[in-house]
Specification:
Blueprint lengths: L6 E9 L2 E9 L4 E6 L8 E7 L5 E6 L3
Antiparallel strand pairs: 1-2, 2-3, 3-4, 4-5
């Protein structure tokens, strides 16, 4: 597995309501955790990610509303 994504990232998201921030932490075992203010009604997210054959990444997370 590539380790290019592993680590902690601060991500800025632009949406109709304005600009928000997320903190994403990607682990080498293919899990990641998300917290931020871009979804004010959602809890932090627990997730899985993987590298795709074309070199991009895909991820899915679950959070409580």
């Amino acid at each position: 597995m590539s380790t290019g994504l592993v680590g902690a990232w601060e991500v800025t998201a632009t949406r109709p309501q304005g600009v928000g921030k997320n903190l994403l932490t990607f682990s080498s075992d293919g899990t990641f955790f998300r917290s931020g203010d871009t979804h004010p009604t959602l809890s932090g997210g627990h997730s899985a990610w993987k590298r795709m054959p074309d070199g991009t990444y895909t991820a899915t997370y679950v959070a409580f509303q």
